[in-house]
């Protein structure tokens, strides 16, 4: 029994120490300085699409409405063999809103990563913005991200902050809102150290010269971009003042599918880039990436082993205590059903990370999007 107790303590310490580091980091006041660009150079906006007929016109209109000279914006829609009218609606929207743009239809469906590579490769401007079809930028979002990018030649890319929008309260929206409350502060802290690669893909502003093609079948497109840019000698930063909005599904099954895909692709990108764990990449290679590796792979396994072991250890003393551990765990897990809280969100996050370790092996670079809603 002593061995079980020691094991329970050790498995508990792994996730506790990992997340305690982040908790202490996000409690530290951060700089709120907003960098305003001195110039607004020509930019290319790349939008990968697949069956986006519900939102593509709204997305293009939003680019017309932001505080950026329309004449300095060129949009490239890279369509992944949509089966709806995404291509036609995009072409019509360019004319309707008098915005420079083109639609590239891929010869076969190969996923988002391949679409990003193609779109960035076709860009002729020094600065490129990648985004999704179902989000809406705040008017100053691109300016604030670009201003941060231009503040230092060593910065290769900057991503923005997601503000989730829910049309109705549900367990899934409660969980996502709680998670997003701390996600941005975690990424901002990593940016202060060196870089974060947990980018928000719907708003990334980058120097084209810092980009190199990302693996088409390995990892999330946004994480893949960040890791390649870091490998190329630049920093990748999170900018909380560059805000955009995205609809959150209230459907549990759709959120589960989205979360598993996202977790699996981040894990895949991490494994594919373990070569960045090196002093050559400064604090990112020595601290940020190793800590994320523990968070993505070791902490979720340790967390659930700790719950099981504590139930066994306490149950050997008193059966009621052992059952009580499992009951408390279940109540904590489901508490987000009634009110958004970090404990429930944390447990669900560990579940998604654990399950996605298996899901990762299935290959998730080609996927079906969740329901699309205009923000």
UniProtKB/TrEMBL annotation:
The chain crosses the membrane at residues 6-27, 293-313, 319-338, 350-370. GO terms for molecular function: glycosyltransferase activity. Residues 44-161 form the Glycosyltransferase 2-like domain. Keywords: Glycosyltransferase, Membrane, Transferase, Transmembrane, Transmembrane helix. This is Glycosyl transferase family 2. The lineage of its organism: Archaea, Methanobacteriati, Methanobacteriota, Stenosarchaea group, Methanomicrobia. It comes from the Archaea.
């Amino acid at each position: 029994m002593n061995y079980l107790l020691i094991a329970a303590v050790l498995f508990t310490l792994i996730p506790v120490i990992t997340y305690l580091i982040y908790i202490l980091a996000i409690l530290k006041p951060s700089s709120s300085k907003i960098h305003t660009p001195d110039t607004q150079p020509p930019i290319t906006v790349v939008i990968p699409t697949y069956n986006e007929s519900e939102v593509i016109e709204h997305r293009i209109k939003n680019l017309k409405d932001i505080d950026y000279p329309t004449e300095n914006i060129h949009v490239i829609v890279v369509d992944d063999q949509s089966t709806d009218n995404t291509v036609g609606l995009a072409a019509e929207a360019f004319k309707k809103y008098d915005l420079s743009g083109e639609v590239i239809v891929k010869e076969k469906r190969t996923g988002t990563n391949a679409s990003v590579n193609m779109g960035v490769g076709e860009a002729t401007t020094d600065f490129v913005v990648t985004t999704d079809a179902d989000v809406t930028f705040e008017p100053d979002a691109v300016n604030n991200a670009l201003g941060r990018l231009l503040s230092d030649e060593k910065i290769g890319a900057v991503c923005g902050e997601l503000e989730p929008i829910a049309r109705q309260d549900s367990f899934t929206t409660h969980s996502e809102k709680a998670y997003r409350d701390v996600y941005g502060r975690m990424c901002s802290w990593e940016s202060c150290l060196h870089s974060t690669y947990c980018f928000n893909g719907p708003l990334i502003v980058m120097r084209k010269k810092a980009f190199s093609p990302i693996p088409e079948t390995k990892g999330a497109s946004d994480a893949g971009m960040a890791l390649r840019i870091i490998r190329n000698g630049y920093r990748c930063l999170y900018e909380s003042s560059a805000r955009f909005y995205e609809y959150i599904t209230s459907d549990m099954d759709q959120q589960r599918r989205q979360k598993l895909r996202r977790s699996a692709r981040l894990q895949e990108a991490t494994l594919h880039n373990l070569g960045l764990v090196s002093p050559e990449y400064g604090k990112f290679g020595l601290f940020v990436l190793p800590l994320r590796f523990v968070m993505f792979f070791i902490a979720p396994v340790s967390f659930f082993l700790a719950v099981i072991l504590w139930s066994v250890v306490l149950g050997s003393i008193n059966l009621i205590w052992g059952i009580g551990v499992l009951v408390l765990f279940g109540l904590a897990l489901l508490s987000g059903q009634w009110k958004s809280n970090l404990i429930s969100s944390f447990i669900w996050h560990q579940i998604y990370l654990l399950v996605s370790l298996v899901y990762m092996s299935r290959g998730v670079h080609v996927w079906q999007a969740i329901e699309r809603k205009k923000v």
